Amino acid sequence: MQIGTSQFYATGASQLGKLSAQADTLNTQIATGKKITAPSQDVVAYNRLSAIKQANADNTAYASNISLAKSLLQQSDTTLTAVTSQLQRAAELTTQAANGTLNDANRKAIATELQSIRDDLVNLAGTTDARGQPLFAAATGKGAVTQAADGTVTFDGTGEVPAIPVGDGTDVRATDSAQRVFGGISDGKGGTTDIFAVLSTYISALNAGGTATASAASGTAATAIQSALNQVSDVQGSVGARAARLDIVSSQATDAAGAREVDRTALEDTDISTAIVDLQKTMTILQATQASFTKLGQLSLFDYLK
Amino acid sequence: MSDLLGIGASGVRAYQTALTTVSENISNASTPGYAKRTTDLREIAPANSLTANNATTTGQGVSVAGVTRAADSLRAADVRNASADLARSETGIAWLDRIETALTGNQLGDRLTGFFNAAKAVAADPTSTTPRSALLEQASAVANSFTATGKALNNLDADVDATADNAVATLNTLGASLAKVNEGLGRVTPGSNGAAQLADQRDAILDQISAISDITVTTDSVGRATVKLGNAGGPTFVEANQAASVTFARGTDGTVSFALHTQQAVSTVTPNGGALAGVIDGAARIADARTKLNTIATAFTDGVNAVQAQGNDLDGKSGAALFTVGTTPTDISLSLTDPRGVAAAGAGKGVRDNSNLANLDTLRTSGAFEANTTALISSNASTLANRKQVADAQSAIRDNAVAARDAVSGVNLDSEAVDLLRFQQAYQASSRVIQVARDTLQSILDIH
What we know:
The complex is a heterodimer.
Chain A: H1 5-32, H2 43-98, H3 104-125, E1 145-147, E2 153-155, E3 164-167, E4 170-172, H4 178-182, E5 185-186, E6 192-193, H5 195-208, H6 211-268, H7 272-298
Antiparallel strand pairs in A: 1-2, 3-4, 5-6
Chain B: H1 2-27, E1 37-43, E2 62-69, H2 73-105, H3 108-124, H4 129-187, H5 193-212, E3 215-219, E4 225-229, E5 236-239, E6 242-243, E7 245-250, E8 256-261, E9 266-269, H6 274-310, E10 311-312, E11 323-325, E12 332-334, E13 345-346, H7 355-367, H8 369-409, H9 413-445
Antiparallel strand pairs in B: 1-2, 3-4, 4-5, 5-6, 7-8, 8-9, 10-13, 11-12
Helix pairs in contact in B: 1-9, 2-4, 2-5, 2-6, 2-8, 3-4, 3-7, 3-8, 4-5, 4-6, 5-6, 6-7, 6-8
């Protein structure tokens, strides 16, 4: 078969062009570090990369929720520890006040200290959290507790705040309502009362004077404070359990993110060493093609026609 | 002896022509569409050589019978068919590539993910306006992304129209040129250099036409081409010195079509190759992408607005619509500007509630907007990848067809050099014959 001169040059140009394009592609892959720059280059990889990208974005959103929930639970834990120590002091004071050797003045002094404990508890109940929200807020209502002019404390709103989403189908309730921490104590008559009412009644009884009254009131108060302590301890236990659960969720998310990153790298990133070897190979072939093209191009019978 | 002079002179004339043809071949070695020419040399037979029973009668020298074009009509048809197939794929690829850019350029999938994740941050802190504002920003980004993607597809439509108009205009110009070439071929002497030139032009025009549409070509005895668009049953585009004109139209429903107008009638053209077929493929792909995008956009805006309506905003009021849809489903704008208006809470469940955002998450799963967006891009991308493979194969087929054609009709400078040498020597030898004739005659004249 005879090769037309123009065909020889056209073929040469096309071969050199293809090799240059191949070298350019490899160069881009090395420079950007990415194998895939358009979905059509690898549709299957693109699909998986999209899913990975979405999962990573979800993970970032969940991670910030987890960190917020952790900080709220940490704050709850600290506040509940403070509540516990106040209640323990109150329990000690009930034992002191029950002592028959005390006079009314001694009992009044105890009542004063109990009053300050009660004030502290009201303050602790109104603690604000990292978001500037009442830490012990219920689902509805403005704050956590409201203290009236006469000193009576009422719980704002009802219900528990909804849980925060921390993973696909996983959510954690980061805070508890004041009702759950401070209320729900048996009043010994089949009903329930709260720690603020218990302390108010007890303080009034101590201030009223009389050893017999004080002794009876101390007994009732001691039982109620003990059940309040148990309740706070339960809540604190639950807070700790939820924080532990967040740690598990968080570490699972980190593991999954690591696995996704391995997948992503394999799918998307340029294998630098292979790419450089390929580039070297392409360059060698390109140079050889250039050399052979030049040599063949120089071959002309006209050179020998003298 | 005068015969010898005549024979020598005929040789000089013939080889001069032959040398001219070789020079023409050499100078046109890289002219596109030029087919190698050869000079046909014939012996001039002696008059009455058969009847005048004369053993000593010799020939009368050589003459140029004509110029032959080294062309193979079957191989040329192969090149045209392969070019039409390749042009269709390449045009289709160009549009699929642009659809890919239009669909991925505005990162619709990422924006949707961002929107749903912003809702997760609101769920963690429903009473604060900061995450709510962030959610509205993300909602605005999604709306912009839908709008921009829709617009990018609309721009492609405009580009398709412009490309089709250009292709049709070029096709009509080529048709008119071919009609003129046909007219010329009808007048020129067959076997002349002029005929070869016109045939070269004819084949070059046919090659260009086949890049625009697939054609069926028949040639008559003098080489005039009759071109039918499509297969042999297609409408006649060029016949003798008459060329029809092709028009492009986009219907109200967005479908594109081509028609062929002659003085007598209008017929529909259904190209199966060339740029015109690529335009039809591209337009269909763009329409398909738009339909799918619109479906996603409508499901998304309706779904999100429905979730909003189910819940209560920060002021305890029923949620207002988040998105407003304009004339097209992707023409989306944000109608909610107050971050307090995001209906995070379930109806009547209080300001700290976030249960309505769980409905948004359910919508994300059931609507699968992100997955559908990825699927839309993937379906286009896999078609594009397939077409590229097909185009690679077609490119190789075309290259082979061109090589096969050029093996017959291409100019090879080395063989021209050989011919140049051969004819030069023949020319010199013929001159020598004249000299010998003169010397011989002179020797008789010199007898005193």
